[in-house]
Design a protein that fits this description.
single chain; 329 residues; alpha/beta; Rossmann fold; 2 domains; 33% helix; elongated
Length: 329
Protein backbone atom coordinates (compact mmCIF):
# COMPACT_ATOMS: atom_id res chain seq x y z
CA UNK A 1 0.00 0.00 0.00
CA UNK A 2 1.11 3.57 -0.64
CA UNK A 3 2.74 5.42 2.28
CA UNK A 4 2.38 8.78 0.51
CA UNK A 5 -0.45 11.25 1.19
CA UNK A 6 -0.39 12.19 -2.46
CA UNK A 7 1.10 9.63 -4.84
CA UNK A 8 4.29 10.95 -6.43
CA UNK A 9 4.77 10.83 -10.18
CA UNK A 10 7.30 8.40 -11.61
CA UNK A 11 8.59 8.08 -15.15
CA UNK A 12 9.44 4.52 -16.17
CA UNK A 13 11.55 5.25 -19.21
CA UNK A 14 11.77 1.71 -20.61
CA UNK A 15 9.75 -1.49 -20.65
CA UNK A 16 10.15 -3.45 -17.39
CA UNK A 17 8.84 -6.73 -16.00
CA UNK A 18 5.16 -6.70 -14.89
CA UNK A 19 6.14 -7.40 -11.27
CA UNK A 20 8.03 -4.13 -11.15
CA UNK A 21 5.23 -2.12 -12.67
CA UNK A 22 2.77 -3.52 -10.10
CA UNK A 23 5.10 -2.49 -7.26
CA UNK A 24 5.39 1.03 -8.58
CA UNK A 25 1.67 1.43 -9.25
CA UNK A 26 1.00 0.76 -5.56
CA UNK A 27 2.98 3.81 -4.50
CA UNK A 28 3.04 6.19 -7.45
CA UNK A 29 1.37 7.60 -10.54
CA UNK A 30 3.20 6.08 -13.49
CA UNK A 31 4.18 7.58 -16.83
CA UNK A 32 5.21 4.39 -18.59
CA UNK A 33 7.13 4.02 -21.84
CA UNK A 34 6.01 0.48 -22.58
CA UNK A 35 8.57 0.01 -25.32
CA UNK A 36 11.90 -1.78 -25.67
CA UNK A 37 13.24 1.28 -27.50
CA UNK A 38 14.45 4.29 -25.50
CA UNK A 39 12.81 7.68 -25.60
CA UNK A 40 14.49 10.28 -27.76
CA UNK A 41 16.43 12.96 -25.82
CA UNK A 42 13.62 15.44 -26.52
CA UNK A 43 10.93 13.00 -25.33
CA UNK A 44 12.93 12.15 -22.23
CA UNK A 45 13.42 15.82 -21.37
CA UNK A 46 9.71 16.54 -21.83
CA UNK A 47 8.46 13.58 -19.80
CA UNK A 48 10.98 13.81 -16.98
CA UNK A 49 10.06 17.47 -16.41
CA UNK A 50 6.80 16.64 -14.68
CA UNK A 51 7.78 13.77 -12.38
CA UNK A 52 9.27 13.26 -8.93
CA UNK A 53 11.40 10.25 -9.86
CA UNK A 54 12.56 8.31 -12.90
CA UNK A 55 13.47 4.68 -13.46
CA UNK A 56 15.90 4.38 -16.36
CA UNK A 57 18.40 2.03 -17.97
CA UNK A 58 21.93 2.63 -19.18
CA UNK A 59 20.58 3.85 -22.54
CA UNK A 60 18.96 7.01 -21.15
CA UNK A 61 21.38 9.93 -20.93
CA UNK A 62 20.62 11.95 -17.78
CA UNK A 63 22.37 15.29 -18.24
CA UNK A 64 21.68 19.02 -18.52
CA UNK A 65 19.48 18.48 -21.58
CA UNK A 66 17.34 15.81 -19.94
CA UNK A 67 17.03 17.73 -16.67
CA UNK A 68 16.57 21.22 -18.11
CA UNK A 69 13.02 21.58 -16.73
CA UNK A 70 13.00 18.76 -14.14
CA UNK A 71 12.46 21.05 -11.19
CA UNK A 72 10.55 18.60 -8.97
CA UNK A 73 12.75 15.58 -9.67
CA UNK A 74 14.26 13.97 -6.56
CA UNK A 75 15.87 10.77 -7.81
CA UNK A 76 16.85 8.89 -10.96
CA UNK A 77 17.35 5.16 -10.45
CA UNK A 78 19.46 3.28 -13.00
CA UNK A 79 18.75 -0.40 -13.77
CA UNK A 80 22.47 -0.97 -14.32
CA UNK A 81 25.67 -1.14 -12.34
CA UNK A 82 27.44 1.28 -14.69
CA UNK A 83 26.34 4.91 -14.66
CA UNK A 84 28.30 6.59 -17.42
CA UNK A 85 24.88 7.64 -18.76
CA UNK A 86 24.61 9.96 -15.72
CA UNK A 87 26.17 13.42 -15.54
CA UNK A 88 26.74 13.04 -11.82
CA UNK A 89 28.13 16.55 -11.35
CA UNK A 90 25.07 18.14 -12.95
CA UNK A 91 22.65 15.85 -11.12
CA UNK A 92 24.30 16.77 -7.83
CA UNK A 93 24.09 20.46 -8.71
CA UNK A 94 20.35 19.97 -9.39
CA UNK A 95 20.07 18.04 -6.09
CA UNK A 96 18.87 14.92 -7.91
CA UNK A 97 19.91 11.64 -6.31
CA UNK A 98 21.51 9.06 -8.59
CA UNK A 99 21.49 5.32 -7.88
CA UNK A 100 22.63 2.11 -9.57
CA UNK A 101 22.37 -1.66 -9.05
CA UNK A 102 25.71 -3.21 -8.06
CA UNK A 103 26.31 -6.65 -6.49
CA UNK A 104 23.16 -8.39 -7.75
CA UNK A 105 24.71 -8.97 -11.20
CA UNK A 106 28.29 -9.76 -10.16
CA UNK A 107 28.33 -13.53 -10.61
CA UNK A 108 26.14 -13.59 -13.71
CA UNK A 109 28.36 -11.01 -15.42
CA UNK A 110 31.52 -12.82 -14.35
CA UNK A 111 30.13 -16.01 -15.90
CA UNK A 112 29.57 -14.11 -19.14
CA UNK A 113 33.11 -12.78 -19.10
CA UNK A 114 34.53 -16.24 -18.76
CA UNK A 115 32.23 -17.52 -21.50
CA UNK A 116 33.47 -14.82 -23.90
CA UNK A 117 37.05 -15.61 -22.95
CA UNK A 118 36.67 -19.32 -23.64
CA UNK A 119 34.71 -18.79 -26.86
CA UNK A 120 37.29 -16.33 -28.20
CA UNK A 121 40.30 -18.42 -27.20
CA UNK A 122 38.85 -21.62 -28.69
CA UNK A 123 37.45 -19.93 -31.83
CA UNK A 124 33.90 -21.06 -31.08
CA UNK A 125 32.08 -18.45 -33.18
CA UNK A 126 34.49 -18.81 -36.08
CA UNK A 127 34.26 -22.60 -36.10
CA UNK A 128 30.45 -22.59 -35.82
CA UNK A 129 30.15 -20.26 -38.82
CA UNK A 130 32.57 -22.51 -40.73
CA UNK A 131 30.51 -25.59 -39.83
CA UNK A 132 27.17 -23.96 -40.74
CA UNK A 133 28.59 -22.91 -44.10
CA UNK A 134 29.21 -26.57 -44.90
CA UNK A 135 33.02 -26.43 -44.87
CA UNK A 136 33.54 -29.27 -42.36
CA UNK A 137 34.31 -32.29 -44.52
CA UNK A 138 36.77 -34.17 -42.31
CA UNK A 139 38.59 -34.03 -39.01
CA UNK A 140 42.07 -32.51 -39.20
CA UNK A 141 44.89 -32.58 -36.67
CA UNK A 142 45.54 -28.89 -37.32
CA UNK A 143 41.89 -27.89 -37.72
CA UNK A 144 40.52 -24.80 -35.94
CA UNK A 145 43.27 -24.69 -33.35
CA UNK A 146 42.73 -22.22 -30.55
CA UNK A 147 44.76 -21.28 -27.50
CA UNK A 148 44.53 -22.73 -24.01
CA UNK A 149 42.79 -21.17 -21.03
CA UNK A 150 44.07 -23.52 -18.34
CA UNK A 151 47.47 -22.82 -16.76
CA UNK A 152 47.86 -19.51 -18.58
CA UNK A 153 48.01 -15.94 -17.26
CA UNK A 154 44.89 -13.79 -17.08
CA UNK A 155 45.28 -10.03 -16.74
CA UNK A 156 42.25 -8.30 -15.23
CA UNK A 157 41.94 -4.55 -15.71
CA UNK A 158 39.46 -3.31 -13.13
CA UNK A 159 39.45 -5.35 -9.95
CA UNK A 160 36.10 -4.47 -8.44
CA UNK A 161 33.39 -6.99 -7.56
CA UNK A 162 33.16 -8.46 -11.05
CA UNK A 163 36.91 -8.51 -11.58
CA UNK A 164 37.39 -10.38 -8.31
CA UNK A 165 34.66 -12.88 -9.27
CA UNK A 166 36.45 -13.50 -12.58
CA UNK A 167 39.75 -14.00 -10.73
CA UNK A 168 38.20 -16.68 -8.53
CA UNK A 169 36.85 -18.48 -11.59
CA UNK A 170 40.29 -18.30 -13.19
CA UNK A 171 41.82 -20.10 -10.20
CA UNK A 172 39.68 -23.16 -10.95
CA UNK A 173 41.43 -23.31 -14.35
CA UNK A 174 44.85 -23.15 -12.74
CA UNK A 175 45.44 -19.68 -14.14
CA UNK A 176 47.92 -17.15 -12.83
CA UNK A 177 46.07 -13.92 -11.99
CA UNK A 178 47.60 -10.48 -12.43
CA UNK A 179 45.62 -7.26 -12.24
CA UNK A 180 45.77 -3.52 -12.75
CA UNK A 181 43.48 -1.15 -10.87
CA UNK A 182 43.31 2.54 -10.08
CA UNK A 183 44.14 1.60 -6.51
CA UNK A 184 45.84 -1.53 -5.28
CA UNK A 185 43.54 -3.92 -3.41
CA UNK A 186 43.97 -4.64 0.29
CA UNK A 187 46.32 -7.54 0.94
CA UNK A 188 43.57 -9.86 2.20
CA UNK A 189 41.59 -9.49 -1.05
CA UNK A 190 44.74 -10.05 -3.12
CA UNK A 191 45.39 -13.23 -1.18
CA UNK A 192 41.78 -14.40 -1.53
CA UNK A 193 41.97 -13.91 -5.31
CA UNK A 194 45.62 -15.07 -5.47
CA UNK A 195 46.18 -11.98 -7.60
CA UNK A 196 49.37 -9.97 -8.15
CA UNK A 197 49.24 -6.22 -8.73
CA UNK A 198 51.17 -5.00 -11.80
CA UNK A 199 51.36 -1.89 -13.97
CA UNK A 200 49.11 -1.58 -17.00
CA UNK A 201 52.04 -2.09 -19.37
CA UNK A 202 53.28 -5.14 -17.50
CA UNK A 203 49.81 -6.66 -17.58
CA UNK A 204 49.44 -6.15 -21.32
CA UNK A 205 52.86 -7.65 -22.03
CA UNK A 206 52.53 -10.65 -19.68
CA UNK A 207 48.90 -11.73 -19.96
CA UNK A 208 47.76 -14.51 -22.24
CA UNK A 209 44.22 -13.23 -21.80
CA UNK A 210 43.25 -9.61 -21.02
CA UNK A 211 39.88 -8.96 -19.39
CA UNK A 212 38.48 -5.41 -19.20
CA UNK A 213 36.07 -4.88 -16.31
CA UNK A 214 36.64 -1.28 -15.22
CA UNK A 215 34.00 1.48 -15.22
CA UNK A 216 34.06 3.90 -18.13
CA UNK A 217 35.31 7.44 -17.53
CA UNK A 218 36.57 10.18 -19.83
CA UNK A 219 40.06 9.43 -18.51
CA UNK A 220 40.01 5.84 -19.79
CA UNK A 221 38.34 6.59 -23.13
CA UNK A 222 40.18 4.44 -25.71
CA UNK A 223 42.45 3.18 -22.95
CA UNK A 224 43.13 0.18 -25.20
CA UNK A 225 44.31 1.52 -28.52
CA UNK A 226 46.95 0.80 -31.13
CA UNK A 227 49.87 1.25 -28.72
CA UNK A 228 48.36 -0.99 -26.04
CA UNK A 229 47.33 -3.71 -28.50
CA UNK A 230 50.88 -3.74 -29.86
CA UNK A 231 52.14 -4.59 -26.36
CA UNK A 232 50.04 -7.75 -26.18
CA UNK A 233 51.24 -11.18 -27.20
CA UNK A 234 50.24 -12.31 -30.71
CA UNK A 235 48.65 -15.34 -29.03
CA UNK A 236 46.64 -13.20 -26.59
CA UNK A 237 42.90 -12.66 -26.38
CA UNK A 238 41.11 -9.48 -25.34
CA UNK A 239 37.67 -9.49 -23.69
CA UNK A 240 35.71 -6.30 -23.05
CA UNK A 241 32.95 -6.74 -20.48
CA UNK A 242 33.08 -3.13 -19.29
CA UNK A 243 32.01 -0.31 -21.64
CA UNK A 244 32.59 0.11 -25.34
CA UNK A 245 34.44 3.40 -25.22
CA UNK A 246 37.34 1.84 -23.34
CA UNK A 247 38.53 0.12 -26.54
CA UNK A 248 39.43 1.92 -29.75
CA UNK A 249 37.41 -0.37 -32.02
CA UNK A 250 39.19 0.67 -35.22
CA UNK A 251 42.55 -0.16 -33.65
CA UNK A 252 41.14 -3.50 -32.46
CA UNK A 253 39.86 -4.33 -35.95
CA UNK A 254 43.31 -3.69 -37.43
CA UNK A 255 45.00 -5.76 -34.71
CA UNK A 256 42.67 -8.70 -35.40
CA UNK A 257 43.00 -8.42 -39.18
CA UNK A 258 46.79 -8.34 -38.97
CA UNK A 259 46.89 -11.12 -36.35
CA UNK A 260 48.57 -8.73 -33.93
CA UNK A 261 46.47 -10.45 -31.28
CA UNK A 262 44.82 -13.85 -31.55
CA UNK A 263 41.18 -13.02 -30.89
CA UNK A 264 38.71 -10.87 -29.00
CA UNK A 265 35.34 -11.14 -27.28
CA UNK A 266 33.04 -8.12 -26.91
CA UNK A 267 29.78 -7.65 -25.04
CA UNK A 268 29.86 -3.83 -25.23
CA UNK A 269 30.40 -1.31 -28.02
CA UNK A 270 31.18 2.36 -28.28
CA UNK A 271 28.10 3.29 -30.31
CA UNK A 272 25.75 0.54 -29.20
CA UNK A 273 23.33 -0.61 -30.37
CA UNK A 274 25.06 0.52 -33.58
CA UNK A 275 28.03 -1.74 -34.33
CA UNK A 276 31.21 -0.69 -36.08
CA UNK A 277 30.88 -2.54 -39.45
CA UNK A 278 34.52 -3.56 -39.32
CA UNK A 279 33.84 -5.75 -36.30
CA UNK A 280 31.45 -7.83 -38.41
CA UNK A 281 34.11 -8.46 -41.03
CA UNK A 282 36.82 -10.05 -38.90
CA UNK A 283 36.40 -13.77 -38.17
CA UNK A 284 38.50 -13.97 -35.00
CA UNK A 285 36.05 -12.20 -32.72
CA UNK A 286 33.05 -13.20 -30.59
CA UNK A 287 30.26 -10.60 -30.46
CA UNK A 288 27.39 -10.47 -27.94
CA UNK A 289 24.64 -7.80 -27.68
CA UNK A 290 25.39 -6.47 -24.16
CA UNK A 291 23.96 -9.50 -22.35
CA UNK A 292 26.42 -9.74 -19.46
CA UNK A 293 23.65 -9.68 -16.84
CA UNK A 294 20.97 -11.30 -19.01
CA UNK A 295 19.43 -14.05 -16.94
CA UNK A 296 15.84 -13.76 -15.71
CA UNK A 297 16.89 -14.07 -12.06
CA UNK A 298 19.54 -11.38 -12.31
CA UNK A 299 17.56 -8.93 -14.43
CA UNK A 300 14.63 -9.24 -12.00
CA UNK A 301 16.98 -8.59 -9.09
CA UNK A 302 18.37 -5.53 -10.85
CA UNK A 303 14.89 -4.15 -11.49
CA UNK A 304 13.72 -4.71 -7.92
CA UNK A 305 16.88 -3.15 -6.46
CA UNK A 306 16.41 -0.11 -8.70
CA UNK A 307 12.80 0.19 -7.50
CA UNK A 308 13.93 -0.17 -3.88
CA UNK A 309 16.36 2.69 -4.43
CA UNK A 310 13.70 4.83 -6.09
CA UNK A 311 11.07 4.29 -3.38
CA UNK A 312 13.61 5.02 -0.65
CA UNK A 313 14.55 8.30 -2.30
CA UNK A 314 10.91 9.32 -2.64
CA UNK A 315 10.34 8.42 1.02
CA UNK A 316 13.19 10.69 2.18
CA UNK A 317 15.28 7.67 3.13
CA UNK A 318 18.85 7.11 2.00
CA UNK A 319 18.82 4.79 -1.03
CA UNK A 320 21.02 1.74 -0.57
CA UNK A 321 23.03 2.44 -3.72
CA UNK A 322 23.27 6.23 -3.67
CA UNK A 323 26.06 7.38 -5.98
CA UNK A 324 26.24 11.11 -5.18
CA UNK A 325 26.41 10.59 -1.44
CA UNK A 326 27.24 14.26 -0.80
CA UNK A 327 23.56 15.02 -1.30
CA UNK A 328 22.77 12.90 1.75
CA UNK A 329 25.64 13.96 3.99
Amino acid sequence: MSTFTVKPKVLVARQIFPEGLLRLEEVAQIDYNDQALPLTPAELSQRIAGVDAALVTGSERIDATALANANQLKIVSNIAVGFNNFDIAFMTKKKVMATNTPEVLTDTTADMGFMLLMAAARRLTESEHWLRAGHWKNWSLAGMMGVDIHHTTIGIMGMGRIGQAIAKRALAFGMTVIYYNRRRLPLDIEQECQARYVSQEELLRQADHVMLVMPYTQENHHLIGQTELAMMKPTATLVNLARGGIVDENALIEALKNKRIFSAGLDVYEGEPNINPGLLEVPNIVLAPHIGSATKKTRLAMMHLAIDNLIAGLSNQRPLNLINEELWT
